[in-house]
Amino acid sequence: MDEIRIGLVGLGHRGLHWLRILERIDGYRITALCDPIEALHERALAALQDRKGVTAYAGYEDMLGDPRVDAVAVTVRCKEQGALAAMALEAGKHVNSEVPAAHTLEDCWRIVLAQERSGLVYQLGEQTRFWGYIDAWRDVVQSGKLGRVTFCEGQYIGYYGTRQFFQDPDSGEFAAVEELPNNPGAQPTWLHTMPPIHYLPHELSPLLKVLDDRVLTVTAMSTAEPSYSHPEIGQPDIQAALMKTEKDAILRLVCGFTQPVSHGMGHHWFHIAGTNGVLEWKRSGKGKPLMWLADGQMHDMAEMDWGHARTDAPAAARGSGHGDADYYVHVSFRDAVLGTTPLEFDVYQAMDTAAPAILAADSIDQGTTLLEVHDFRPGPERQKGQAPGA
Question: E strand or H helix at 209, and its extent?
């Protein structure tokens, strides 16, 4: 195989973004599109550079039955996201999935078992782990310059207005809270009630990459629902988790999508502290990343020139989205499916980011209970392809 024939499921904003990227990267050919809202099909077909030979499906199982589809790109936002990914693997298709992978532990296990039994490629398309400064931080931490890492912080307070929380089920058009009186058919989307903390893979993925670590236990708290900022939305404004890792680091992680915040401050902020130094991402668009080393004759944090974009990025990465990181999501998946480069972010690492987030929401529901995070890797108690407890 020298080309991946891929079907794209979910034709919203992210789906169209993936469509454009897939068309510009060598090694992909879009052969199918899928969305239960048929009104979105023509818009997606029109966005293609060449729509010849591309089939649009309203039924997901119909697309999975298409022999001209080798892989599935899952770009949906729904409670069944994990089940859809597992179904594709079970149908013999490779899977590249948008964050957060799954919304239940049962679906996490279903993905793992389907990947193990099929041997197919499953990748969680989490892009922040590919940022230039994340690799720079990993080098600093792995070199020992920071000493032993003891405390990390990450937050994703992403305010995009209120348009994503209501959608017309027939047209697929979204409506902001302010527009609801003129859109009586608009219904709450999954994001309306999804625990915001389920989106923690965007923070856990880069942190665990830097630390080369995994989470062992988690507890969490939440503000009340509905939103204080927008009472029409059933989400809490802020959810926060405390986690303990295998290497004895404590993580404090926060998520929220309904509380207004400046873009430069709220989106993907990180802090890493060790026994010999500190790394910190900038706190505003005007700020600078910072570093302090105890043995570096430094009296205060020093401004650094790290950025999202990688200095070693090829021209094809520029403008791909998320500081050019989206390019690497699709190239790493392509190379793994074609067998040229092993997958760096495998199914077990993906679940290392998804499961703690799911358990954080469970902890909130159970009154801030401390919960253990299972290791999804096979071992003495579970053979590869065998369900846990079987």
Answer: helix 201-211
Cβ atoms within 10 A of the Cβ of 260, count? 11
Classify burial at 222, counting beta carbons within 10 Å of its beta carbon; exposed 0-12, middle 13-18, buried 19 or more.
buried
Nearest to 255 by CA among 202, 323, 309: 202
Summarize pLDDT for 339-365 with one digit per residue, the tens: 999 999 999 999 999 999 999 999 999
Task: Please say whether the beta carbons of 302 and 292 come within 8 A.
Answer: yes
Q: How far apart are CA 305 and CA 8, in angstroms?
A: 37
Residue 308's φ and ψ, nearest 5 degrees, are: -70, -50
| pTM > 0.90 | yes
Task: Enter the tokens of residue 42.
Answer: 């023509």
Three-state SS for 345-390 is CCHHHHHHHHHHHHHHHHHHHCCCCCEECCCCCCECCECCCCCCCC
Q: Give residue 75's Cα distance to chain centre.
A: 10
